[in-house]
UniProtKB/TrEMBL annotation:
Annotated TM spans: 12-41, 53-73, 79-96, 116-141, 147-170
Coiled coil spans: none
Record-linked InterPro entries: YciB (IPR006008)
Protein name: Intracellular septation protein A
GO CC, alphabetical: plasma membrane
Length: 184
């Protein structure tokens, strides 16, 4: 679990740096420049350490550079704020693969209710698309406080709630099916 949070922090580091610097300085150019430099430094550091970099790392760097450049040219932070939505859309697209979630489930779940796990995978994809669309809508307002609230409380809270609901529902269904099978 610690690895997951470290990866998420790494993936969103440029957005976090941008937001922090912008909130402290109220300077779009400085915040964007620091975010771009940070993203480049992050990739260089990983290469120096000999870490394997995947396609998503390079795609994220390209997004930071492109959206950062557009932000610098327009002096408009909304482009940088929209970056995490692209990640949500990409993850949502990956989650459209049938059965992607099965490998993350314990055997008792995959053996008892694989069809529900597949449905849950599609529900997660839909959630990623909705969160990404909401993030673009919030970024379009240009309100950094609203964006920070959305990305942390709304997006984070929706994922935590979805996980909890999924856990409870799958547990109830598995228990019900196992009891029914035991009676039969």
């Amino acid at each position: 679990m610690k690895d997951v949070f470290a990866r998420l922090a790494s993936d969103f580091l440029s957005a976090i740096v941008f937001l922090a610097v912008y909130l402290i300085t109220d300077n779009v150019v400085l915040a964007t420049s620091v975010a771009i430099a940070g993203a480049i430094a992050q990739v260089i550091y990983a290469r120096v350490k000999g870490q394997q970099l995947n396609y998503m790392t390079y795609a994220s760097l390209a997004l930071v550079v492109v959206l950062g450049t557009v932000t610098l040219l327009t002096n408009d932070p909304r482009f940088m704020l929209a970056k995490p939505s692209i990640a949500h859309f990409a993850i949502g697209a990956i989650m459209l693969k049938r059965g992607w979630m099965l490998r993350y489930m314990p055997p008792i779940v995959t053996e008892t209710v694989p069809e529900y796990v597949t449905a849950a995978g599609y529900a997660w994809a839909a959630l990623m698309f909705v969160i990404g669309a909401g993030m673009i809508a919030v970024a379009a307002t240009g309100d950094l406080k609203l964006w920070a609230f959305y990305i942390t409380v709304v997006a984070g809270g929706a994922k935590i709630l979805a996980f909890a609901v999924q856990y409870v529902v799958l547990r109830l269904i598995v228990t019900s099916r196992r009891r029914a099978a035991a009676r039969a």
